[in-house]
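Subject: complex prediction, re-run

Hi both,

The earlier run crashed halfway through, so I resubmitted it with identical inputs.
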Amino acid sequence: MKFAVFDHLDRSGPDLGRQYEDRLRLIELYEWAGFHAYHVAEHHGTPLGSAPSPGLFLAAVAQRTTTLRLGPLAYPLGLYHPLRLMEEVCMLDVMSGGRLELGVGRGASPYEAEFFGVEPSTSQARFDEILEIVLKGLGAERLDHAGKFFTFRNVPLVMQPVQRPHPPLWHVTRSLDSADRLAALGCNIALAMPTHDAGAFTTRYRAAWAALGRAPEDMPFIGNTRNVVVLDSDRDAVTAARRAFHVWYDSMVHLWRANGVELPRQVSTPDFDEAVDQGYIVAGSPATVRDRMLRDQFVSGINYSICRFACGDLSFEESARSVRLFAREVMPALVPEDDEGPAHSATGTLAPGLRWLGDEDLSEVGFLFR
Amino acid sequence: MKFGVFDHMDRAGPDLGRQFEDRLKLIELYERAGFHAYHLAEHHATPLGMAPSPSVFLAAVAQRTKTLRFGPLVYTLNLYHPLRLIDEICMLDQLSGGRLELGVGRGISPYEVGYYGVDPATGPERFAEMLSVVLKGLTEKRLSHAGKYFSFDDVPMELQPVQRPHPPLWYGANSLESADRLAGQGLNVVVGMKAEAVGAFAARYRAAWKALGHHEAALPFIGLSRHIVVGDTDREAQSAARRAYALWYDALIHLWRAHGVGLPRQMIPAEFDGALAGGYVVAGSAATVRNRLRRDNDVAGINYCLCRLAFGDLSVEESRRSVDLFAREVMPAL
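This time it finished cleanly. Structure:
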């Protein structure tokens, strides 16, 4: 079991520079607490995504961390020129010493694609062609391609990624039916599903994986995303989570509402309590969160736990408190005894930016420095 | 007189990760040495530019520095989607607390533009439209535009830059005649000519600036860029400069040579000795560099002295030494 963070970087207030800096400090804390990776979304023209160019934000993340893996989740491929995307991927992988996790997607929102002048009906074909080009080009020295949207003749590719043939691929899905196809592709999966549906997905994915004759220990990561708020009492945590959920949901629904429709209900319910029931939100004291996540982990059959500690108007202090309680009191209990791997141990490297924690805070989570 | 650094980020050797880290350390030194800004080029598919996405590298620069200003010189506008470029500009300005210097150009290499599928013949027209869309997007809450290359209908601009109405603009000037227009637009310029020709350009720019009723004190930057190597002796500095210049020049003409042609205008001598004599490269002891720059800066009439302190295979130690000596013994005298 590994733990990771997903972040919309949805707008939390008027001062964006401060939000970026607070988020970078939080990301230092993720590394320090032993999270495996930080995944950031890409959105355009909406308060849902203040990192419309996730590559830029990740270049900053790479400077603030040394071992944490990082990546977009996901690049909407149709909104990129494939050469620029390859160049960006190579630069990020090189500048991070091979820590890039490469999430790719079609782009979930038809409105955002339209801003870019991309006809939504072409999005699947565009995605397929750009992914083909990018996978062909990464690691190669020249690019040739003749397709529907792009043509390249003998273009020199002067940069290569550190990770060969390419950084690990991630795909986001909400569809049970995609399990067989994604298992065949063998890419890592980030689900955004109610716990029970995630369980159905992983069962089907594992069956497809086995049917392909592949070993269970070679399984890619399959994670499910939850908003997680851990505070000292259930009451505090639920109050903060409820407050932040509504701000975050407003950002989620923003462009849909601006176009006179509500968010498709399978994307997210507007109702906090329903979202809690479905497992989209886990909020409470450490004991409550631990019990709920242990149960959900069993039901959903995931091997990768994706948490969202910062969303809506959660303050930096609330998120940092959540992360520290989670690392100290929740994470260790979620790793099965026979689980191999470093999921519950910290890296032992203290990022320079973590000095703000102070001695008292360090002692509180000092066990992480084994 | 302010001092800036210009960097092609041409390939220095096989280990690119090391080059990036070495360069970031050097940039920290630029900040300590009192440089005003770090300017990074954008090139594609050539060893001349290993930062094909200058924004990605500059986002790292923003983390490694606190006061140094920085920016692309230039973004090749025609190779971007305007919305993405607006997003990148806003993010960099926000990530750095308003330290972005915004260089814009159309991309002068027909090969690089061609790889991106852009017809070089459309360059100037496309550039003009792109720039107007980008400036509109940076300054307005919603973007509407109906043009030849792009149409936008009421697209929300969620991000704004810190610097209003937008970060300072920079432009690379290559002709004397452009001085009037650039002064009219109030753009900072880096002039790609010899010191004497820059002198004529700067005089014309200043005259146009004055004729517009602007105050001398508000004159934008007029800059001239040179390769600079400072060492303990002329011999040591010029030997390192000669070695590195050859590699840099190879990178400069790489794509042209690959297509069987020379550079369109032989403005920069291929031979080191010619480049040194012409002042394209200024290399030597602190005294030599000081004297040459003092003379050339005077002739050129510039108020921005742009230095290229890392190029070719100059080692990080050689560049550090250059920067140290330059800051201590050259800058104060200029």
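Chain B touches chain A through 46 residues (CB under 8 Å).

- K.
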